[in-house]
Amino acid sequence: MGAKSGRNKRGGRGGPKKATPSRTGGRKGGGAAQRLGLILFAVVFVALFVIFAVAEGLGAPSVPSGDIAVISSAPEGMGNISEAEYKATLARQETQAGLKKPPKAGSKKAEELHKASIEELLSKVWIFGTGEELGIQVTQKEVEKELEKVKKESFKTEKAFQKFLKEQNLTEEDVNELLELQIIQAKIQEKVPKEAPPVTEAEEKAKYQEEVATAYTKPPTRDVRVVVNENKKEVEAAQKALEADNSEASWKKVTKKYSPTTEANGGLQKEISEEFLQEPLKKDIFSAKPGELIGPVKQAKSYLLLEVVKLHPESVQPFSEVKTTIASTLTQEKEQKYFSEWVSRDYQAKWSARTQCASGFVIENCANYKGSGRPTGAAASCYEANPKKPPTECPAPVTATSPAVPGSVSLSKPEGERKPQGPLAPKPANEGKGKGKEGAEGAEGAAGGEEEGSAASQAETEAAVKAAEEAAAEASEESSGKESSEEGSGKKGE
Fold first, then answer.
1. I need a surface site. Which of 69, 99, 378, 429 has the fewest CB within 10 A?
2. Does position 339 have pLDDT exceeding 50, yes or no?
3. How many CA atoms lie within 13 A of 314 on its CB side?
4. What is the mean pLDDT of residues 44-49?
């Protein structure tokens, strides 16, 4: 793993000599001894403070020559990441990117692979270190079992596996290490969420009350028998037969003769809900009494004859029936939230603070990283008062926040998969509707109002963005002018 740069061992030439008490009294001798004691105390105090400062991270460790990073509290032998490891990882990154030769120094691709290589090396130490601190162990048997699984699923023969290793600049030791990392990460993601506080019954009941109207309330439904035929006369003949006898046996005969598409079960359709019906069927079915024939009703190209057989009123599932489901859902939510916070606080922030990187290898994961405060990937010209080459696009003044998709947060991807912002909730279907002319006018008015509101909202948003951009440009220009004046160099600062 990381090349050892040596460890400073504490020790010396032996313990301090035992002091011999002075037998000479006198005020002058006592004062000298007192002053000497104060000096020694000050020296010891300073030494203790330095030790404390280093222990608490107040003093940043230096990166030895030949290393790219030093990570404190790392597993034994892994605290120093060597340039040799970096070069090997970079070569593998270039191979995996499908490059036949290294990208041009300073290019976007070169910077991308440079950063990815450092991230890979740091993450490896962080995950091994986290596993060690959590008491997670991986046996050789587990690694061998995982390797066997990988070979079985991805490679037909051992020769194909060896070819893959050669193509990807990997050794079997590299593969075993990667598999061990995967196993540790999986065990961490299984162990940590279980430490989340348990769900209380009060939380379960609150969730039930919050969702009872939408998730646990079943709307009213109807069991209906149906005759469907494109020929109106056929439906009228079916109606005449059923008016004489609307028994189940009669329905079976009638549907077989006049409605082949609904012949099964004598035309019976169970638990039809309003949400799946269009007018006038919705009104006809949900206002009819059981046993009453409805029709013929024109629907698209067909004619329908219906009979409501049974009414099913609205029903609400009691809390006792859904308690287990709610508890399971809340537990998953709590565990996901707890793990996300743990990754940010106890993994990413903690290990970043322990990581010191050498010049030329400093990335966001290093404690000595100093960012510009600007969005990653934003062009420098976005923040220049008079750029030589105007930018094609710049980030918005305000960045929209988006939560992570549940279950997507991991050690290798602390931010998770970002959840896209959903559309605005639709307005109720009956909003703006009325009867006759007044209803039509109301709907038109509502539509017009929506269009005007939307246009106004968009105009306000555009104005706000423009104002923010102008303010940023003015601030940048003032800062640039001030720096130019102070330096007297004529160069424009950001």
1. 429
2. yes
3. 10
4. 39
Q: Is the pLDDT score of 229 beyond 80?
A: yes
- In this structure, of 6-15, 174-183, 263-272, 273-282, the range with the lowest mean pLDDT score is 6-15
Q: What are phi and psi of 114, to 5 degrees?
A: -60, -50
Q: Tell me: pLDDT of 357 over 60.
A: yes
pLDDT in the model for residue 124: 96
**Is 434 in a helix, a strand, or coil?**
coil
Cβ partners under 8 Å of residue 177, min gap 6: 124
Asked if the peptide bond before residue 296 counts as cis, ω within 30 degrees of 0, the response is yes
The three-state DSSP-derived secondary structure of 315-336 is EECCHHHHHHHHHHHHHHHHHH
Distance CA 162, CA 184 (A): 25
Using alpha carbons only, how large is the chain's radius of gyration in Å?
Answer: 38
Tokens 């490891």 -> residue: 85
The secondary element (H helix, E strand) that includes residue 475 is: helix 436-487
69's enclosing H/E stretch is strand 67-71
Contact 151, 161 (CB under 8 A): yes
Contacts of 358 (CB under 8 A, 6+ apart): 63, 67, 68, 69
Backbone angles phi, psi at 199, to 5 degrees: -75, 135
**Looking at the predicted structure, is the pLDDT value of residue 57 above 60?**
no
How many C-beta neighbours within 10 Å does residue 443 have?
Answer: 14
Task: Note the pLDDT tens digit of each residue in 99-124.
Answer: 889 999 999 999 999 999 999 999 99
Q: What is the largest CA-CA distance in the chain?
A: 135
Q: Which of 212, 226, 225 is nearest to 314 (CA)?
A: 212
Q: Is the pLDDT of residue 390 over 90?
A: no
In the predicted structure, residue 55 carries a pLDDT above the cut 60: no
Domains of the chain: 218-316 (3.10.50.40), 376-418+468-494 (no CATH)
Is pTM beyond 0.70 here? no
Dist. CA 346–CA 340, nearest whole Å: 10
What tokens appear for 46 in the block? 């300073």
Q: Are 82 and 2 in contact (CB under 8 A)?
A: yes
Q: Which helix (H) or strand (E) holds 197?
A: none
Q: Is the dihedral of CA 387, 390, 395, 396 positive or negative?
A: positive
- For 200-212, write each residue's pLDDT tens digit: 999 999 999 999 9
Tell which residue, 129, 115, 26, has the closest CA to residue 347. 129
